[in-house]
Amino acid sequence: MKRRLAAGVLAAALLLAGCSGRSGGGSYQVDRPSGNDRPAPRETGQAHTSTFALDVDTASYGYARRALAEGRLPDPASVRPEEFVNSFKPDYPRPKDNGFSVTLDGARSGAVGWSLLRVGLATRPADGERPPAALTFVVDVSGSMGEPGRLDLVKESLRLLASRLRDDDSVALVTFSSEAETRLPMTRVGGNRDRLREAVDALEIAGSTNVEAGVRTGYDVAVEGRRDAVTNRVVLLSDALANTGDTDAAGILERIDTERRRYGITLFGVGVGSEYGDAFMERLADKGDGHTAYVSTPEQARKVFVDQLPAHIELRARDAKAQVVFDDRTVESYRLVGYENRKVAAEDFRDDRVDGGEVGAGHTVTALYAVKLRPGRSGRVATATVRWLDPATRAPHERSGTVDAAALTRASVWGDGHDSLQLTAIAAYFADQLRGGAAGGGGPLPGSPGLAALAARAGSLAERAGSDSVRELATAIRQADGVDGGGSDPYAD
After folding, report:
1. pLDDT averaged over consecutive 10-residue blocks of the chain (493 residues)?
2. pLDDT tens digits for range 449-475
3. Looking at 78-225, which runs of residues are DSSP E strands?
4. Bridge partners of residue 317, in order along the sequence
5. C-alpha pair distances (Å), 61 with each of 57, 143, 236, 274
6. DSSP string covering 11-76
7. pTM here?
8. From the centroid of its chain, how far is CA 23?
9. Alpha helices of 264-349 — where are they, by DSSP H?
10. How many CB atoms lie under 10 A from the CB of residue 421?
11. CA 123, 129, 133: angle at the middle one, nearest 5?
12. pLDDT tens string 114-151
């Protein structure tokens, strides 16, 4: 009984405070003015700045798990470490308002002189019922979707969602193969659930994959049926293997960007299939100020359409960006893990014309850095600032937090009591190994214990927490180790 109770407590607390400034490590947060008439904050001696758009995508991790389950390594180009890290949701403190909390914590890595710094951002959960939504589903019915686990899984997902939508939601359905067709114009769900289910049941395979036609028609329908004071969104469900029409995405991206800016219509991309156009889907979602997920099983579909999609409907922030300024008196060098596709120029941090990311209610966003501190130095290591626009008023807001050297050096990431930070580190090291140790283009991520040790650590975490999601991570790492043969850290002593 005590063991079950302990596991339950850990499950509730897993992905929590890690080796945090919250427990005396020198991390705090402040609100900053949000005007556009001043440069990014810099203090005397500060020169290192890292700026990126926030990202809550998870498709890369889901697709990698699918590939490993089939006995093959994912294409390294499809491995985005930030999506591995953000597939797990730490329980960061939540703000009382509609902005972000900012939490910085860290610990020593397994490499001499190197520490891990985690920047955690979180929004307030939804209050009661979410606002209504106008959702335009754009479904790929081309020939490639005939493979088991593609259109059949999409139809099952949409049936599931149909039972969860509210009466005051609106839904439209567009399909595409060689051409696009509107199967259901924007329609209030109340009194029309059977009509929606019938439209879903009638979906059949036909033709080639003209993603351009599908997205163009989907946005036409979304614009025509848009509603004020609700979340207007296009949901693209496809294997993203475009072979007809505009297949380089340029024209599609321009249309998405135009409608996003004019009407606030965003894109949620849901990928399916063992062969999947991951990079194509990610580019569409990024330009559409949205995000991506990947599903290959009914369980994953339930998670995306029952848990994630409703959470994404109520927005807390638009065009959200983060900027981390490192103090070069304390920091010798640093490396952001992932976010290569989301980098923003430092001078564009406060330029609200430059795209950021959208973040929903109750979301977390995590960024992990490897930081090499100057020997013997103490004091501030970094200041992290998040900037976002209010979804309704477009007014800019900012909030900041800091961390000092003591918080990054007093304990090892692999020590007892740091399960949350350990899980973040395991996910990041796993992704880095899968893409060949190319974290940020600067070689392997310092401190990796190798795949076998990562699998063992993930397994121990899963056992303590009783967590299925962490258990799945441990399984994926073991599968990768079986294919790849493991690896070690060249930085380690």
Report:
1. 39 39 40 42 57 90 94 94 95 94 96 96 86 92 91 91 89 95 95 93 90 92 90 90 67 80 86 85 81 87 79 83 96 95 94 90 95 94 97 94 96 93 97 78 82 96 93 98 63 41
2. 999 999 999 999 999 989 999 999 999
3. 100-108, 114-123, 133-140, 170-176, 180-188
4. 359
5. 9, 26, 19, 13
6. HHHSS---SBGGGTTS-EEEEE---SSSPPP--TTEEEEEEEE-----HHHHHHHHHHHTTSPPPG
7. 0.83
8. 27
9. 278-287, 298-302, 309-313
10. 28
11. 90
12. 999 999 999 998 877 778 889 999 999 999 899 888 99
Question: Could you tell me if 182 and 172 are in contact, meaning their C-beta atoms sit under 8 angstroms apart?
Answer: yes
- Two structure tokens written together for 478: 């073991």
The amino acid occupying position 307 is D
Phi and psi angles of residue 179, each rounded to the nearest 5 degrees, phi first = -130, 170
Closest residue by Cα to residue 370 from 334, 402, 405:
334
Both structure tokens of 59 = 């498709």
Q: What six digits make up the tokens of 353?
A: 């014309």
Length of the chain: 493
Amino acid symbol at 386: V
